[in-house]
Write a structure and sequence with these properties.
By secondary structure, this protein is mainly α. The chain has 47 helices and five strands. Strands 2-3-4-1-5 form a five-stranded parallel β-sheet, sandwiched between helices. Strand 3, helix 5 and strand 4 form a beta-alpha-beta unit. Helix 26 (538-554) runs parallel beside helix 28 (586-593) and helix 40 runs parallel beside helix 42 (838-848). The longest helix has 18 residues, at 746-763. The radius of gyration is 40 Å and the shape is elongated.
């Protein structure tokens, strides 16, 4: 198993041919640990050759004092008549034995290595190779005993008359490699230095060990991590092969993280043989990890400049350091090997000293904190401050997990008073609220017991994020009530205390949003605040938002009232990401239900630019797109919200995705959400209701109408029991009307339709009212075409184009032909296509009696260009590169094309049923 060593083997073969021609050669294979010198020597031994005798010796560090040990390994077989190769033979063909007493006795102290002994040994070799050339192989020359080294150097200086080739290996970085005798051999030799494996060689070795070609990402991971060192790579691959590991891109991280124990043990032996300064420098580099700097590492190792450079050079020659300006080990396992050679106490002292040096040098707190996290205890007075600073920096870059770990350690290190400890607990809770809400609440509760002032305790409790759509834990509600009562809500608070009191009141009202009596009281409280309510501070706006939400859930307010109040709040509320930890995102839900999304749209257009938008931004965008009936965009934004959601936003984003899934009818998404719900969804009312609606949607699509209806009615009973009557948020009744009608149950369908229409007129949102009129019109005696016309007229004032398309489809069908019917159906088809509702588009085209989409609106020049590039098979990124625009611009042009051409996506644009004629026609337009 030797890769990319053809040139070295060819050089050895050339030297062997020279020996056969009567010329002596010396080759020296050098390189760092693991480069493959010994394997190359084994391959040279195993390589089949005619008329050549191979004599091999392996030096060992424990045998350096065994005089003439290498000589005996090489010439002993000659003395014994070993027939492993072509033997020296006499004229009669029998093997000719050389007298064994010509070899000096091995192992004795002070064994003679005089000129006469060396000459006699050379003569012995000359006689052995007189009839058959000899290939002498010596592995690890740096560990050979001195008498043997003298003889090898003697041979190298006197090559004449020897039909032999001497090939030795020598490890770089070993102190004994600089011995004068070894230098003499090196000066007489042709030096071969095998190179690290290329990426291709790495791929070949991966396939040999794992049995299949590696993905690009996996091959690069192995190549970069092991720096082309065959030994390192083989140990990594052997460990991975034992676990049935496959070389795929998703496993690249495992290849990078692998730290083979056998390789570590081998490196320990190598390091143990090094001089003290080299070991001290290696220990210093290990202590600093990725944060070492040359001067700091030198000071840690307590080496002067000269000793430091020598030790550094040795580690480089051994192949243990990466080729960087700052000292870094070539692989993580090297650090393991260094530290395994230290006692636990030595490791602790080393890491503490490294942290002290970094702190004194003014390096970033995160670097110092990383070293502090690696020790079990420290007595540095500055450690808590450094850990807090590092945690703050981690939070600002979005690494909440890291920040929490730093602060947990700071709590362990803290020995100061209650106030500082309380601040640490609050900071820890602040880091945890995006990753572990239960821990956040627990640490706030601990902090509250340590804080002396009521205002401080109340401010701390507000760090617990509100559960926007779910029921707050009873422990959190109790804590809210406790600090609210301590604050004395009846007192005339001013300034920050008033702000805190208002926010606490908002949280308490929201905690009761699943209680019908609390919902009624909340609306009463809102009306008591006046018209308009006070909105001068953030606390006042949060309180109003929560009270409005109660009016939305219970439908105690009308949609115009909700839109007006929410608009006033948005006008005064600054656009910051901090609202994600307040109740203010409930405004987006209210405006969505009220069919007035312009307010959210205006807010999002003012959002400060961020490379990492919070899930709340994507969730609000999804609601806007859903309220407008743009299903493709709504799905995209809902997926992004789910991907970026922290712990406190997983439940709201799941509910938003469920709403999108029901509207799109995406069976795969519905099934995935139902599976996730069984594992992780909470049991609070909003997720539970959405879960029932999802089940009903899936059952209805699979022909199980009765089961679907049962789920919808159960959902309705559950919602009505707690006073949640808003059908715009939980449309159980509209869906139940359709299923009753499908099952031929006209009376229950009409009863629900009358209820829905009465509610919609009270709620007064165009989308809800238009939908209710349409549903009733489709039932016998429900108003027919006039009611559908009224529905369409109302829906034209709504942002929801999908609801309008549905009404127009039914209206066009009900007209039974004629120009007006054709125009209405064509408008329905165009709207449905623009919304990304292909099933609705197909129904409208079927009613028109044609598969061809409407092409009244021609494509622009830039849109035709995008379509032509799509036809060539280019991706959005490739199209963007071709046109010199952003991928977002390409997406917008494609969306416009889909709408104009009446197709649902790229696949239908390229070759879906009935799409080609429309595409060609559009592309041929001027």
């Amino acid at each position: 198993m030797l890769y990319e060593r053809e040139s070295e083997l060819a050089r050895i073969d050339t030297a062997v041919r020279r020996a056969q021609a009567g010329r002596f050669s010396v080759l020296l294979l050098t390189g760092p640990l693991g480069i493959g010198r010994s394997t190359l020597l084994q391959e040279a031994d195993a390589h089949p050759r005619d008329s050549i005798r191979v004599l091999r010796a392996n030096a060992a560090s424990m045998e350096q004092d065994f005089a003439f040990g290498i000589v005996h390994q090489l010439l002993g077989p000659v003395m014994a008549g070993d027939r492993t190769g072509p033997a020296d033979q006499d004229a009669g063909g029998a093997a000719r034995l050389l007298p064994p007493d010509r070899l000096p006795a091995p192992g004795g102290e002070g064994a003679p290595a005089s000129e006469a002994v060396l000459h006699d040994l050379r003569s012995l070799l000359a006689e052995a190779c007189a009839t058959t050339p000899v290939l002498l192989l010596v592995d690890d020359l740096q560990w050979a005993d001195l008498p043997s080294l003298r003889w090898l150097a003697y041979l190298a200086r006197r090559p004449h008359g020897l039909r032999a080739t001497l090939v030795c290996t020598l490890r770089d970085g070993e102190s004994r490699a600089q011995h004068p005798l070894i230098r003499d051999i090196a000066d007489a030799a042709d030096v071969l230095r095998p190179a690290p494996l290329s990426l291709g060689g790495t791929r070949a070795l991966i396939q040999h060990h794992l049995g299949e070609p590696a993905d690009d990402a996996y091959a690069h991971a192995c190549h970069d991590t092991c720096a082309g060192n065959p030994l390192f790579l083989q140990y990594v691959l052997r460990d991975l092969a034992l676990s049935g590991h496959r070389p795929t891109a998703e496993h690249a991280g495992q290849a990078r993280a692998q730290r083979p124990a056998q390789l570590r043990d081998r490196l320990v032996s190598c390091l143990h043989a090094q001089p003290g300064p080299v070991r001290d420098l290696a220990a210093a580099i290990a202590a600093f990890g990725d944060h070492g700097e040359p001067d700091l590492v030198r000071r840690h190792a307590r080496l002067d400049a000269t000793a430091h450079q020598q030790a550094l050079r040795t580690l480089h020659h051994l192949g243990l350091l990466a080729p960087h300006d700052t000292p870094r080990f070539v692989h993580r396992v090297v650090r393991d090997a260094v530290e395994s050679g230290l006692t636990v106490a030595e490791r602790e002292r080393s890491r503490n000293a490294a942290a002290e040096l970094l702190h004194q040098a003014g390096r970033p707190a995160a670097h110092v904190a990383d070293l502090l996290m690696a020790v079990t205890a420290t007595d540095h007075p500055w450690s808590v401050g450094v850990l807090r600073t590092a945690a703050d920096a981690a939070l600002r870059r979005g690494a909440a997990d890291t920040a929490a770990h730093y602060l947990q350690r700071a709590l362990l290190e803290s020995t100061v008073g209650d106030d500082v400890r309380a601040r640490l607990l609050i900071e820890l809770a602040n880091a945890e609220r995006g990753i572990d809400l239960a821990a956040c609440e627990r640490h706030i509760s601990q902090a509250v017991r340590l804080l002396p002032s009521a205002t401080g305790r109340a401010a701390a409790v507000l760090r617990i994020p509100p559960n926007l759509l779910g029921e707050a834990p009873s422990s959190a509600v109790d804590l809210l009530r406790q600090v609210f009562n301590d604050l004395d809500p009846a007192a005339p608070h001013q300034g920050p205390a008033r702000e805190i009191a208002l926010r606490l009141e908002a949280r308490l009202w929201h905690a009761g949003h699943e209680n019908p009596a609390e919902l009624t009281s909340a609306v009463t409280r809102l009306r008591a605040l006046g018209t308009p309510p006070p909105l001068d501070t953030g606390g006042a706006r949060e309180l109003a938002t929560v009270l409005i939400n109660a009016g939305v859930l219970s439908s105690a307010l009308s949609a115009p009232e909700v839109a007006d109040l929410a608009g006033q709040i948005l006008e005064r509320e600054p656009s910051t990401s901090a609202r994600a930890c307040t109740a203010l995102p409930l405004l987006s839900v209210a405006l969505y239900a009220a069919d007035t999304v312009e307010g959210i749209n205006t807010r999002l257009s003012c959002e400060p630019h961020s490379d990492r938008p919070h899930a709340v931004v994507h969730a609000e965008n999804a609601l806007i797109q859903l309220a407008c009936g743009r299903l493709t965009e709504a799905r995209d934004q809902a997926d992004r919200a789910a991907e970026s959601a922290d712990a406190d936003w997983r439940e709201p984003t799941a509910v938003v995705r469920a709403a999108v899934a029901m509207e799109t009818g995406d069976v795969q998404l519905i099934e995935r959400l139902l599976t996730d719900a069984g594992r992780s969804w909470p049991h609070s009312l909003a997720p539970a209701a959405m879960l029932q609606l999802l089940k009903a949607s899936l059952d209805a699509r699979r022909g199980r109408a009765s089961s679907a209806l049962e789920s919808l009615l159960a959902c309705g009973r559950q919602l009505e029991a707690v006073g949640w009557r808003n059908s715009a948020l939980f449309p159980w009744r509209p869906r139940a009307i359709v299923l009753h009608h499908r099952l031929g149950e006209s009376c229950p369908a009409m009863a629900l339709a009358e209820e829905e229409l009465a509610w919609a007129r009270q709620w007064a949102a165009p989308a809800a009212l238009g939908r209710a009129l349409r549903l009733r019109a489709l039932l016998p005696g429900g108003g027919g075409v006039p009611a559908l016309r009224a529905s369409a007229e109302i829906l034209r004032t709504s942002a929801n184009q999908l609801e309008l398309a549905r009404t127009l489809l039914h209206l066009g069908r009900s007209m039974e032909g004629g120009k007006e019917s054709t125009a209405v159906l064509r408008e329905a088809a165009d709207l449905a296509a623009a919304c990304g509702a292909p099933w609705l588009t197909e129904r409208a085209r079927a009613a028109l009696g044609t598969d061809a989409p409407s092409t009244e609106t021609p494509l622009t020049h830039s849109e035709r260009k995008v379509v032509s590039l799509v036809g060539r098979g280019l991706t959005n990124q490739e199209i963007a590169d071709e046109l010199g625009v952003s991928t977002r611009a390409v997406e917008k042009r494609l969306t416009s094309c889909y709408r104009k051409l009446g197709v649902a996506g790229r696949r239908e644009l390229l070759g879906g049923r009935g799409s080609r004629r429309g595409v060609r026609a559009a592309l041929s337009m001027p």
